[in-house]
Design brief:
The protein has 7 helices and 9 strands. With 223 residues, the protein is α/β, with parallel strands linked by helices. This is ATP-dependent Clp protease proteolytic subunit.
């Protein structure tokens, strides 16, 4: 249990408690509906709607992320930083995965911007989105009670001649080593353990994710 929380994080927790967890019709600061319509990625036909940052500084990731979607999210993060460098940003995750390189771009941006980024899993955080969840600000990585989190090897689709495929395989090995190193740093697990654990799909409950170090706290375990 975290002993101290930011004022903004407390407001998020209070507003979520007021809502119906059965329908996941959750609220956020300023009484806006969750997920945020004006902040959520519009994934229809892979088109993304660029908009100014929402007043409550929330980004919802609820679709598999491609490179276009990653660019949208990075743009939102940078605009929110410019608008208020000291105020937390909230990233809500219910995602099955997506572009390895796209997620790495989002991750790097989260690490470099000045505001703390609160990550919250509602539903699922699989593959690269689980990695992103673990990369939130220390003490501010959250999940709802019945969330499921899954780590695995990075994967992507490559096409080409045999020589190209060999190069792509080398690239995947480099990226896997890099991602496992970062997960180890965020969780406190040994690199060798993370590497072994991601040989196959590794599923976690919210409680198991805390034990592993992927998140810091479960919201409302009693629900």
């Amino acid at each position: 249990m975290i002993k101290s929380q930011s004022k903004d994080l407390t407001l998020v927790n209070q507003s979520i408690r007021k809502s119906s967890m059965k329908e996941y019709n959750m609220s956020i600061p300023h009484s806006k509906p969750f997920p945020m319509n004006n902040q959520q990625i519009e994934a229809n036909n892979s088109k993304y709607t660029q908009s100014k940052p929402a007043e409550n500084r929330i980004i919802t990731i609820s679709e598999d992320i491609d490179d276009e979607g990653a660019s949208f999210i990075i743009g939102q993060l940078l605009m929110m930083e410019a608008e208020s460098p000291e105020e937390d940003i909230y990233v809500y995750i219910n995602c099955m995965g997506g572009s390895m390189y796209g997620f790495m771009g989002i991750y790097d941006t989260i690490q470099e911007i000045k505001p703390d980024v609160v990550t919250l899993c509602y539903g699922s955080a699989f593959e690269m989105s689980a990695f992103l969840l673990s990369g939130g600000a220390k003490g501010k990585r959250l999940a709802l009670p019945n969330s499921r989190i899954m780590l695995n090897q990075p994967e992507t689709s490559f096409y080409g001649c045999i020589t190209d495929l060999q190069l792509y395989n080398q690239e995947l090995m480099i990226m896997r080593k890099n991602i496992c190193s970062l997960i180890a740093a965020h969780t406190g697990q040994r690199f060798e353990k993370v590497t072994a654990d991601t040989n196959r799909d590794q599923f976690f409950s919210a409680a198991e994710a805390i034990e592993y170090g992927l998140i810091d706290r479960i919201l409302y375990e009693s629900l």
